[in-house]
Amino acid sequence: MFVKIFQSIKNNKQFQNFSIYGIGQLFNLITPLLIAPYIIKLCGEEGFGKAGIGLSFAFILTVLVDFASGINGVKEISVNRNQPEIVQSIATTLFSIKLISLLIVLLISSVLIFNISFLYQEKELFFLSLIILVSQALNPTWFLQGIEKFKVISVITISGKILYIIMVLLLISKSKDYIFVNFYFGLSAIIANSFCLYWLVKRKHLVITHPNKREIISTFKRDYKLTFSQLLLSLQQYSPILLVGYFGNSLLAGQYKIIEQIIMIFRTYLQVLFNFIYPRVCYLLAQNTQNGIRKWLLFNGANFTIVLISTLLIFIFSPEILSYFNVSDQNNLSFYLKLASFIPLLFAINIPLQQLVLAFNLQKQYVNITIWISVFLVASIATTFSLWQLTGIFILLMITEAIVVILYLYTLRNKVFKKSIL
């Protein structure tokens, strides 16, 4: 009996895709943990903090380069995957928009770096970090998700991360080399993404046609509000370390980055699951709403249990975990880590609900929630940091995530709960 069940699971296409995709994304989870102690040892917590600030600056801007391709792009490719001509038209339009956005964002970024003293003080770091934007413009992951080529995603993810690790270990050798950490991150991704694009074109999975100006304008009008909301969501995720560096110092930013590195494993893990099942959720909800909600609930309920057990272990073994990073102030950081260990539980509710909000095309409500929450978080950190510092930031992050959960539930009240009851 158990053998049959195991064989059934093993032969399930969705399980096979998830396993292949999961192996690749596992590298996304462990790579920062593998290189963080090495960077801290050579560059110190202060250098680690500066690199983290530069990385967050670049990650915030990548949302503008993506231009909602990771959401609407994946959805459109997935829904039309049996119509090759439409798929290629969508791909050409979105790649064109990404390249146009890249040029605009690079120009705006350069102006900001030269005119904001906080950024100009570390101009080499921030300019070198902008290579991440180029890698994101070339990133075909959203297209591969839509056509469900998960093995290819794993290959480019693993090869890119291995190349990044090699670059860091061979080329980072002194304290001032923190300015190159993000550059190697972006360069390794560019190399992996370029090979993948070549493979897609050669195999004719991707046929780049002449861009249709009307389609580009139409897509821009459709997605600019969602892109703006994603920018604010990115600010919500990545601005805390920028604010710590601005209102505090690089040492505090480094300490925050260490805690964030551990906690954000869960957000990355949950976002990976989001990316994997989002096309399927959209498809299932379009076919049968009740069945789609039931499978969404089953999967995410089991996932919440995994996150709960994991966060409990982090809470209990926080000193042992921090000893791996060679931190200078283990007692304080242990307190911060225990406090922050509650945040992933809210991630595990928030991100699946976000998936439903987007799948039900409640984008207007999603944009409004994101706007107000982002403004609330940034304003709260800016006004309270001098009083509570890192303790206040982790408390505010918990409050923010809890409010988002409540607002998502309220937004979905007529879409999910009434249908589930019926």
Written account of the structure:
The protein is mainly alpha-helical and 422 residues long. The protein is built from 18 helices and no strands. It is globular. The N terminus is likely disordered.
Average pLDDT rating: 87
**Overall 3D shape:** globular
- Tally the beta strands: 0
State the helicity in percent bands.
Answer: over 70%
Low-confidence stretches: 1-6
Q: Which sheet architecture does the biggest sheet show?
A: none
Helix and strand sequence: HHHHHHHHHHHHHHHHHH
User: What is the alpha-carbon Rg in Å?
Assistant: 21 Å
* Total DSSP helices: 18
Beta fraction of the residues? under 5%
- Terminal residue distance: 35 Å
Question: Which structural class fits the helix and strand makeup?
Answer: mainly alpha
